[in-house]
Amino acid sequence: MSHHQIIIVGGGNAGISVAAQLFRKNSKLDIAIIDPADKHYYQPAWTLVGGGAFDLQKTVRNEADVMPKQAKWIKEACMSFQPEKNEVTTSGGTYTYDYLIVAPGIQLNWGAIKGLPETISKNDVCSNYSFQTVPYTFEVLKNFKGGKAIFHNPHTPVKCGGAPHKIMYLAADYFRKNGLLEKADIQYWSGAARLFAVDKYEKTLLEVCEKANIKLNLMQRMEEIDGPNKRARFVGMAESNMGQETWVDYDMIHISPPQSAPDFVKSSSLANELGWVDVNINTLQHNKFNNIFSLGDAAGLPISKTGAAIRKQAPVVVGNLLSLMENQTMDNSYQGYTSCPLVTGYGKLVLAEFDYNNNPLETFPFDQSKERWSMYQLKKQVLPRMYWSQILKGKA
């Protein structure tokens, strides 16, 4: 078994935790991880960073420090796949594999909104979606004196589906604590058809919106942002407003960039019609190439793209890959578990956990649709520590 060459594309949460789990099962495996990154980020905490409630520096480590020691690190960018030849081409060369795990994460398409790259982190245009931009979010909140506060959710899938509105609830709470809520016109402009996909949790979130007088504008795609004039252009996507253009003025705006699978995945024969890696949603094995698996944000799975989902996907990939290598039946199955810890204010959180059918799959013996201080502490104190010490090391 040890002579099989396994290549993992992606040195994020998914790639590293899978490698760690594979080594725990068989320390002699030959595993190479392709990733050009110098830094490794714990991104779930960026919502709290944007709200001024978490230290940004605690969300970053050197990639070299989290790479499994037994893995060969190919510090190059993946460019293309040649699955018919069992090859991956990078910025530095071509590598052959016996088994391939595709876990490169998601691509942030800042340029998909006209004017966004030029105005991000100035003109009160903020975003929690990158290490570089997230500190400006709290600057904007602190400088807000009243007026129109816009929170945007794109028309594409995004990593951490709750993030675009979590910062809105924190902002509303921040304004409330600073006597500004009455002066704030908070609006949510979203490319989705509803606030949240699971009824049980959406009910609570709608109540949170009602308390802060947040106005929801759904099925709206952001096309353009004009930073100097502080206005954004949206185009309607519903039958009732299809193609209708609206320019919205703002005093502050939080933008979540449109997202997609990385270009090298989208343009490859591994992709489905939407550009994601075409895998069986239960076994996570590729539908066409049986020596390829995928997990994480780039995998074509009909579920929210979260770190919690990866935690349940990783053991399935590991178990099924090892079974395949031994010519045994693959009996590990992923049922679509995902989790969105929905911060609804400082010290308040709704822990949404659900499956492919949007049925709640809850961990705790209480109603998780209620806002709880204990769940906020889980997000702020427990999960970041657990990520670095347990999850990345394949222990959780």
Number of H/I helices:
10
Distance between the termini: 25 Å
Amount of helix = 25-40%
Overall residue-averaged pLDDT value: 97
Strand content: 15-25%
Number of strands: 22
Give the overall form.
Answer: globular
Structural class: alpha/beta
Largest sheet: 5 strands, parallel
Low-confidence regions: none
Strand order of the largest sheet: 5-2-1-9-20
- What is the chains' assembly state? single chain
The value of Rg in angstroms is: 21 Å
Q: How would you describe this protein?
A:
- The protein is an alpha/beta fold and 396 residues long.
- The protein has ten helices and 22 strands.
- The chain has helices spanning 13-25, 46-50, 63-66, 116-119, 134-143, 163-177, 199-211, 263-266, 307-325, 373-391, and strands at 5-9, 30-34, 39-41, 60-62, 72-74, 78-82, 87-90, 94-96, 99-102, 107-108, 125-126, 147-153, 184-190, 215-217, 220-226, 231-236, 245-249, 252-254, 259-260, 292-294, 338-345, 348-354.
- The strands form seven sheets. The chain has a five-stranded parallel β-sheet with strand order 5-2-1-9-20, with helices on one face. Strands 11-18-12-13-14 form a five-stranded parallel β-sheet.
- Strand 16 and strand 17 form a beta hairpin.
- Helix 1 packs parallel to helix 9.
- The two termini are 25 Å apart.
- The relative contact order is 0.16.
- The model has no long low-confidence stretch (mean pLDDT 97).
